[in-house]
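Troubleshooting log. The previous structure file for this entry was overwritten by mistake, so regenerating from the original sequence record. Sequence copied from the archived sheet and checked twice against the printout by T.R.
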Amino acid sequence: MLVASLICLPIFFHIVKKGLLAGENIDLFLHKFGSLIENQRAQKNLIASYWKLIGLFRWILTVLILIVARGHNELQIFFLLIISVVTQSLILTCRPFTDTLENKMTFLTEIFISTYLYLLLCQTDFMTALPLREPLALGLIYSVAFTVLANFLVFGKRGNDRFKLWRQKKLAARKHIY
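Regenerated output below.
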């Protein structure tokens, strides 16, 4: 899978670059390859147009870190933390998605990832205070639970918004019939 991802990354990069330079053929590009830049501010921001490719590169880098530094837990966590902080800064500066809530949730998820990695770093051999390990382990569990809860709340809010929109359309159609 890692090899396939490494092969696909330059191909996807070329497809998106070709589409951004297409000019008058942008509708044809969006019809063929729209899922590569779907829900992103591709027309306004160069990094946003390559956001899915950046995500794919990030996954490849994460897998490589986990494989190469498998005997060094501290280095793995440190490098993953660097990737997370870079991603946070890109989200803040580029706002890659057209939906503001999507940008906020992506940033919040990255904050949770960084918090989890900080707590995980405290569980390595650097932490010499053994009585603190159990509360930090509970902090790990709570950070994961809070992340899942936040995502479910956003999912519920979006579902509620769509239901209200659907309901308004139904009511408007009824009023139009009578």
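The radius of gyration is 21 Å. Archived copy saved in two places this time.
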